[in-house]
Design brief:
A hairpin with a 2-residue loop joins strand 4 and strand 5. Helix 1 runs antiparallel to helix 14. With 442 residues, this protein is an alpha+beta fold. It folds into two domains: 294 residues, 3-Layer(aba) Sandwich (Aminopeptidase), CATH 3.40.630; 140 residues, Alpha-Beta Plaits (2-Layer Sandwich), CATH 3.30.70.360. The chain is elongated. Helix content is 36%, strand content 18%. The longest helix is centred in the middle third of the chain and has 22 residues.
């Protein structure tokens, strides 16, 4: 490929900065909270994903793409558009999710309204700016820049914006449905924010995630009998057992397994100690009563198990259950009243060989785009901190990795933002990647 063509596209992208930033801001202003997200009002949020994708579809049409909006579930429309190549080139799929998490408390947002799309001091603020409407626009604008240079690709390039990622609905109705709809490619890049630990990292692997509830049974009584339940000489379980105490015992015990994981679960692309066991929610009370005048008869701990990508979900489940069983043997009550484990969600890991052609191609495109950029950093390969739709694309036989602007450190947080210099560099990278991977037609 001629250097002149690449430089032409990069210069075009430089001149598109205001348009790119404005498009991200407008998309952020369209509320598209995942209606199935825990705590969200389903009926109030339903339709937001479709509205945001309808906005993007007009941009797809302007690029000459056949904008395909389809629903697996009512009022939750996915979007795809294919830029057909002239032939004999490799195909590429760009993907991102259009749904966001809820905005949280507005008063926590120092930048203003959570859906402001405000641009200030080199950043775009608002829910979804980073995770991941900015990255979606970046991929789309890369196509626009190539077209503006009068170039055509040999291979097909498919843009996709899918629903349901934030609560794993995407497995069946979002990215997981792309192949059934007929959208496949020789490789894919999911534009999730790929930091930390490195901004705009090339990410070929993620951990897996289990969500499991651990519920402990207790025995209720009057709060004044607490001393009888655990003091020397007391009546103990004849009177009552505080389920919260037993839940805390298990939390402390399971922390030992987490400590063990920190020492034994190692991966070259993850920081030491990345694989964790988080007690994210603890709830306990007397059934039907929420005052502290009773000894509580249940306690539930909601756990996130971030597990090693080479461990199978079944192996992780067996290890956790075995460890909880051993912990219960150390407690008189739990020996006879073991907790109930409810395995709710498993989000699979993904792993692509770092030497795979798509990893090398993204890294090379990034390095070339970064030359002379205001945000000039070399490509680095790292593991993804969280989980994402690349897992479902890989399960469909499409080698898929993550590369995108932004950081998970600010995603889901108040004052979520995206740095404009990262946004611009990612747009250049996506454009050069598409030109290199798909090939430029003569």
């Amino acid at each position: 490929m001629h250097t002149r063509q690449k430089n032409q596209v990069l210069n075009i992208i430089e001149g598109m900065e205001n348009e790119i930033v404005d498009t991200v801001s407008q998309l952020v202003r369209i509320r598209s909270v995942n209606p199935g997200y825990p705590g969200a009002n389903y009926e109030e949020e339903l339709g937001g994903e479709s509205e945001a994708n309808s906005y993007l579809s007009e941009h797809y049409k302007a690029l000459g793409l056949n904008a395909d909006l389809w629903e697996v579930q009512s009022k939750r429309a996915n979007l795809a558009g294919v830029w057909s190549g002239t032939g004999e080139g490799r195909s590429l799929l760009f993907n991102g999710h259009i749904d966001t998490v809820p905005t949280g408390l507005p008063e926590k947002w120092k930048s203003g309204d959570p859906l402001s799309g405000k641009v200030s001091e080199g950043r775009i603020y608002g829910r979804g700016s980073c995770d991941m409407k900015g990255p979606l626009v970046s991929q789309m604008m890369a196509v626009k820049a190539i077209q503006a240079a009068g170039l055509k690709l040999k291979g097909d390039l498919t843009l996709t914006a899918t629903v349901g990622e934030e609560n794993m609905d995407s497995a069946t109705m979002g990215a997981g449905n792309l192949s059934k709809r007929g959208y496949r490619a020789d490789a894919a890049v999911v534009s999730e924010p790929s930091a930390p630990p490195h901004p705009l990292a090339v990410v070929p692997v993620s951990p897996g995630l289990w969500w499991v509830s651990v519920t402990v049974e207790g025995k209720a009584s009057h709060a004044a009998t607490r001393g009888e339940t655990f003091r020397a000489g007391g009546l103990g379980a004849e009177v009552a057992v505080n389920a919260i105490d037993k839940g805390i015992f298990l939390v402390n015990s399971i922390r030992k397994l987490e400590d063990e994981w920190g020492l034994t679960k190692k991966h070259s692309l993850f920081k030491p100690g990345h694989f964790t066991i988080l007690p994210g929610i603890i709830s306990g009370a007397p059934h039907g009563v929420e005052v502290p005048f009773f000894i509580s008869d249940f306690c539930t701990i909601e756990y996130c198990l971030w597990y090693h990508p080479e461990d199978s979900p079944e192996t992780v489940r067996e290890e956790f259950e075995r460890y909880v069983g051993h912990a219960c043997e150390l407690d008189e009550w739990l020996r006879d009243h073991p907790p109930k484990l409810d395995w709710k969600v498993n989000w699979p890991s993904f792993s692509v060989d770092p030497d795979h052609e798509i990893c090398k191609a993204v890294g090379a495109a990034h390095n070339e785009a970064a030359q002379g950029s205001s945000f000039s950093i070399p490509a680095k390969v790292a593991g993804f901190y969280a989980v994402c739709d690349a897992a479902f694309l890989n399960s469909q036989g499409i080698p898929s990795i993550v590369y995108g602007p932004g950081s998970l450190l600010v995603a889901h947080a108040a004052d979520e933002y995206l740095k404009i210099d990262e946004l611009m560099l990612s747009t250049k990278t996506y454009a050069l990647l598409a030109m290199d991977w798909c090939g430029i037609s003569d």
